[in-house]
Amino acid sequence: MVPKISIAIDGPAGAGKSTVARELARRLGFLYIDTGAMYRALTLKALRRGLNLDDEDSLKALAGESCIELTTDPEHLTRVFLDGEDVTQAIREPEVSRHVSLVARFPGVREVMVRRQREMARCKNVVMDGRDVGTVVLPDAEVKIFLTASPEARARRRQRDLLAQGHNIQLDLLIREIRERDRLDSSRPVAPLVPAPDAWIIDSSHLNAEQVVEMIVARVLGRLS
Q1: Regarding the domain delimited by 6-214, which CATH topology (the fold level of the hierarchy) does it fall under?
Q2: Is the Cβ–Cβ distance between 128 and 117 less than 8 Å?
Q3: Minimal CA–CA distance to 199: which of 136, 116, 120, 152?
Q4: 160-177: b or e for each residue (b if 16 or more CB lie within 10 Å)?
Q5: Cα 161–chain centre separation
Q6: pLDDT of res. 1
Q7: I need a surface site. Which of 51, 146, 158, 208 has the fewest CB within 10 A?
């Protein structure tokens, strides 16, 4: 019998966590949980409602009333549903990216989201990615990865994604936004972006997603054997 195993992948924006985690889950037959998509969905809803993103109580209440679901389509891609609406594309819009760290910084919001994420991982083999999975959400995960890359490498990847979506944004602006998001994520008082003490740190600046996946699969299979 294969033991239950959880894989936590943390790291800054644009390091390739979602791509790696999704392919890793497909290869291993695990459930993929994109925690960042959950915060993005909440941010999208807050922006649509015109909420004050400095109002923790309002954002916590919004998190509590929102139905955020993650499903996997036949192509093994994650679909994100917010109150029944497919918002998979909408949550990747630049406006959401610019504000998601503001929404995710509040303890009340994170309390609601972390509870849901733990429930999703309780009974299944999972690959979960985010900012604080190995340190807060799944501190007992059997495999912990901290995937990082230089701001310049991450900005180039982000620019390619945005161009594919029809958004032409200057590289310098993206580098500034990524550095500011890193600052916000790593300096917040609750669940800051830091590697877990027992995390395996992988710098993907000069690696592609397939190379990173191969490295992690080898380690997971070694553990299972």
Answers
A1: Rossmann fold (3.40.50)
A2: yes
A3: 136
A4: eebeeeeeeeeeeebbeb
A5: 16
A6: 43
A7: 208
**Both structure tokens of 225:** 């054997």
> Phi, psi at residue 110, to the nearest 5°?
-65, -35
Using CA atoms, how far apart are residues 40 and 97, in angstroms rounded to an integer? 7
Closest to 71 measured CA to CA, from 63, 60, 79, 83:
79
Tell me if 32 sits within 8 A of 72, measured CB to CB.
yes
Q: Can you tell me which residue has the tokens 């007992």? A: 140
Total residue count of the chain as it appears in this document = 225
Assign residue 166 a region (left: φ > 0; alpha: ψ between -120 and 50; beta: otherwise).
left
Q: Give the phi and the psi of residue 100 in degrees, each rounded to 5.
A: -65, -35
Residue ranges of the chain with per-residue pLDDT less than 70: 1-3, 76, 225
Q: Round to the nearest angstrom and report the end-to-end CA distance of the chain.
A: 11
How confident is the model at residue 42, as a pLDDT? 98
Q: Across-strand partners of 79? A: 71
Sheet with strand 31-34: strands edge to edge: 31-34, 126-130, 6-10, 143-148, 200-203
Question: Looking at this protein, which amino acid is placed at residue 161?
Answer: D
